[in-house]
Each structure stands twice: as C-alpha cells, then as structure tokens.
Amino acid sequence: MPFTQRFPSLDAIQRNGYLAVLVGSVVATGLIIAPVAMHRTLFRQGEKEWLINAANWCARLGLLALALTMCGVVWLVFDVVVSRTAALVAGGLALAFLTLLWGAFPLVKRAD
C-alpha cells in the first residue's frame, strides 16, 4: 500500500492504522513461531516444563495479536474502500467472530 499512488491521500488515522497492522503482523508471527525456535534451541536440555509453559503463552498471545491484526486489516480496507462507519462495523464483526470461534467455543467445550 505505501508504494501505491493512493497512499499519500490516506488520512493520519489510516496511515497509523496501516502501521499498526504492519507491526501487529510482525508481533503475531514472532509469537506464533517462537515455540518452534525455543524447542529447537532447548531440545533435550531439561527445560521441558518451562518450554511447555512458554510455548503456551506465546501461542495464546500470538493468537490474540493475530486476531487484532486481522481485525485491523478488515477495518483499514473498509475504511479506505467504503467509509469509517462501515470499517468500524466490519472490524467489530470480525472481532466478534474470532472471539467466538477462538475464545468462546473452546471455553464452552472446556466447561463440559
């Protein structure tokens, strides 16, 4: 997007939103992949319990960062293409969907 002719026409909120989802994508990717790197580094070093706990936290935080980033992308695209109001609705619906799918449904099963 920053390399297109339309990028200069974005307002400050849209440019900051773009930067936020860019950073969010790096954070989400780093957190989701971190358990693999940790496992490769600590394999057979007697750190199994620490590794499992750290991987669990990284995965949870990574999914949260991914959900927020995805919602931010939906918001940004709708804001640029349709309107700010449509962007808020679309981003909110995306957040509700991911909250249900990744949060509420597993908690319901866990309560069984």
Give an account of the 3D structure.
- It is a single chain.
- The chain is mostly helical and 112 residues long.
- It has one domain (12-111).
- It has three helices and no strands.
- It has helices spanning 12-42, 48-81, 84-111.
- It is flat, with a radius of gyration of 18 Å.
- The protein starts with 11 loop residues before the first helix and ends with a helix.
- The mean pLDDT is 93.
The proportion of strand residues reads: under 5%
Q: Let me know the average pLDDT.
A: 93
Compute the gyration radius: what is it?
18 Å
- Low-confidence stretches are none
Name the helix and strand elements from N-terminus to C-terminus, one letter apiece.
HHH
Number of helices: 3
| Major pleated sheet | none
- Helical content class: over 70%
Overall spatial form = flat
What separation lies between the terminal Cα atoms?
A: 46 Å
Number of strands: 0
Q: Helix- and strand-based class? A: mainly alpha
Our count of domains comes out at 1
Task: Show the helix and strand layout.
Blueprint: H1 12-42, H2 48-81, H3 84-111
Helix pairs in contact: 1-2, 2-3
Pick out its properties.
112 residues, 3 helices, 0% strand, flat
Question: TL;DR?
Answer:
The protein has helices at residues 12-42, 48-81, 84-111.
